[in-house]
Amino acid sequence: MEKLFFDTEKDGFYGTYYINPKESHCAMIGMFGDDPNDYMAKCGAKWLHKNGVNVLCMKDYSHVNYPLERIETAIQWLKNNGNKKIGIVGMSTTGMDALVAASFFSDITLTFALTPSDFIWQGFEQGNKDGCKEWPIPGASTLSWKGQPLAYMPFVYEHPIYWQKVEEETKGSGDIERSTCLFIDSEKAREHTEEEMIKVENIKGSLFLVGADDDSFWGATRSIVKSYGMRTC
To answer: Does residue 108 sit in helix, strand or coil?
Structure first.
C-alpha cells in the first residue's frame, strides 16, 4: 500500500495515510490498535480500501489528555488533499474518542463507534510501574481541548489498587479485558456529571454504535442503550 507518514512536531498529528489504489474522494480516520502502523491498523486500512475509501490511521496508545486539535488538524489535511467526505471509526477507548471528535467537528459525517462509553474516562497509562501494567493518572482526562483536560469520570481506584483489583478479579492473569470492576465500581461510586457526557446530539451525518450483550469488559451496551436508545447485537 502507498503510504504517507505524519509526525506530531512537524505536521501537528501522528498518523499514517493509506492511499486507496483506486482513486477516492472520501476518507476514514481509523483509530485502530496501539499505533497507526501496527498489524491492526494495516488490516483495518485494507478492509476500508475494499469499501472504496482512503484511510488515515491515527493515535498512539497514550490516553492522557490526547489533544483533539490533532484530529482537527488531520481533518483539515484530508480536506486539503482531495477528500470531500470524512468519517471516523474507533473501538473501545478510541470508540469513545471517535464519538467525542465527531461531536466537536462537523466535517465528520460518518461515525462508527465499536463498544464505546457514552462519557469520557479519566486518563490512564500502560507499561510497567511498581509491578502494575496499567494505572490511572491523577487530574488527567483521556482527552483535552485547547490545552485543558475535558471533564471526565474518575476511576474509583487509585494506583496501585487499580491494578491490584484487575489481578484479583482475573485470578492473577492481568487480562484487563476480562475485568469489569474498574468500570462498574467507578460508575457506582457517583453519578455522571453533564459535563463528562459525550454530546452525541452534536454529531452530524450517520452514526453507528456496536456493542455486545455478553461484553466481558466495560459493558458498552449499557452506554449505547442508556444514552443513545439504540438496539444492541
So the answer is: strand
pTM: predicted TM-score of the whole model, two decimal places: 0.91
CA distance 49 to 27: 10
Predicted confidence (pLDDT) per residue in 99-146, tens digit? 999 999 999 999 999 888 889 999 999 999 999 999 999 999 999 999
CB 53 within 8 A of CB 18: no
Q: How far apart are CA 232 and CA 223, in angstroms?
A: 10
Residue 214, CA distances (Å) to 40, 47, 92, 208 in order: 23, 26, 15, 19
Range of the domain at 91: 3-118+198-228
Residues 21 and 63 in one domain: yes
Q: What cell does 83 get? A: 477528500
* Domain shared by 38 and 84, yes or no: yes
- What is the domain count for the chain? 2
Count CA atoms within 13 Å of residue 212 on its CB side.
8
Q: Look up residue 130 and give its three cell numbers.
A: 511498581
Q: Are residues 106 and 126 in the same domain?
A: no
Query: Could you tell me if 28 and 92 lie in one domain?
Result: yes
